[in-house]
Automatic annotation (TrEMBL):
Residues 8-138 form the Creatinase N-terminal domain. Signal peptide: none annotated. This is M24 family metallopeptidase. SUPFAM superfamilies: Creatinase/aminopeptidase (SSF55920), Creatinase/prolidase N-terminal domain (SSF53092). It comes from Streptomyces arboris.
Length: 368
């Protein structure tokens, strides 16, 4: 991966040079990892002028969850344990002769930005903006391979849970068990806090697992994902507990399933973000559920669980090939129950078989 990271840094360096910045400072952890291979806690990456440097507040501990820095990259540990790497980076850039430095203003506090200005008063600080985030949208096949493994781990963990006895267990217990199973199958950890919602709790769009116990006839809505080598996927499924589904549950599930299928089928290179959102949202609006829908029906995934692109009604832009996204419509009826179906897919051209589904757990409405 050393060559891959060097190429990524080279692309960013060229973009900065074209914008008039002699050097760039990357501080957002996911962006540091993308460009450097690893992101020890608090580390920042200084690109040029001259040699690229990964500045760390303390010696990297080598924890797998933080990745492994590119061996070809210089790593410097600050001599003062409580020093700020971004301030040190400003001094490094000025000492190397840079007259300008592009920084991720959206990641820096005002206090840190001011401290950089004091440390290097002659250094002009420009805004790098979301340049690295935009560079990260299209994934290479090695990144997609990590996402594929993350999805396989997630499917395994969920599949094992569905084979166990669920009635009488609490939402919190089920969420903890799912996260343990993710790690047992090789994940670095969960991609995000696992959500388990039962019965009326499934009628909440955002629900944290509680001490409510699973009961016969409940909707069981589960959302989880694995973090594998830094790459994160997402799956969401809804089931019925212990008995044949009621008619209203079948109708609601079929509606959300049709909406999710529409969103999946709309994924193609060149498709507008808003059109994919529309394909998933429109059936739910026609059925009268438009008012309570989430503001988006999907988003990108990668080194963060929520990345660009955003699949939303006002989103601007079009999909490229090799962009992993979620499609996750849902309908939530407060006090009664709800259905959400989430998948992680990779946008592929029709000649390659169309969108690649990574999360394979059945979407059939099972009675567990």
């Amino acid at each position: 991966m050393s060559e891959v990271h060097a190429v990524r840094r080279g692309l960013l360096r060229d973009r900065c040079a074209a914008a008039g910045s002699a050097a760039a400072l990357v501080s957002r952890p996911a962006n540091v990892r993308y460009l450097a291979g690893g992101a020890p806690p608090g580390a920042v990456l200084l690109l040029g002028p001259g040699e690229d440097v990964l500045l760390c507040p303390r010696a990297p501990a080598g924890e797998p969850g933080h990745g492994r820095p590119d061996e070809a990259l210089r790593v410097d540990v600050l001599p003062v344990p409580d020093g700020d790497p971004v301030v040190a980076a400003a001094g490094f850039a000025a000492a190397a002769g840079a007259d300008s430095l592009a920084v991720e203003e959206h990641d820096l506090t005002v206090a840190r930005h001011r401290a950089m200005g004091k440390a290097a008063p002659r250094l002009r600080l420009a805004d790098l903006g979301f340049t690295v985030e935009q560079q990260r949208i299209v994934k290479d096949e090695e990144e997609i391979g990590c996402l594929r493994i993350a999805a396989e781990i997630t499917d395994q963990a969920l599949g094992e849970l569905l084979e166990s006895i669920l009635v009488g267990r609490t939402e919190r217990h089920l969420a903890l068990e799912l996260e343990r199973r993710l790690v047992d199958h090789g994940a670095d950890g969960p991609a995000f806090a696992t959500s388990v919602a039962t019965g009326p709790n499934s009628g909440q769009g955002r629900h944290r697992p509680s001490d409510r116990r699973v009961e016969e006839g409940d909707f069981l809505s589960v959302r989880l994902g694995a973090n594998y080598h830094g790459y994160r996927c997402e799956i969401g499924r809804t089931f019925v507990i212990g008995t044949a589904p009621a008619q209203w549950q079948i109708e609601l599930y079929d509606l959300v399933f049709a909406a999710q299928r529409g969103g999946r089928e709309a994924l193609a290179p060149g498709a507008a973000y808003r059109d994919v959102d529309r394909a998933a949202r429109h059936p739910l609006e026609l059925a009268g559920y438009g008012e309570g829908l989430q503001p988006r029906t999907g988003h990108g995934v990668g080194l963060e669980i929520e990345e660009d692109p955003q699949l939303a009604p006002t989103a601007m832009g079009k999909l490229d090939a090799c962009v992993p996204v979620t499609v996750e419509p849902g309908v939530h009826l407060p006090g009664r129950g709800g259905v959400r179906i989430d998948d992680t897919l990779v946008v592929r051209p029709e000649a390659d078989g169309g969108p690649e589904l990574l999360t394979m757990t059945t979407k059939e409405l099972l009675a567990l």
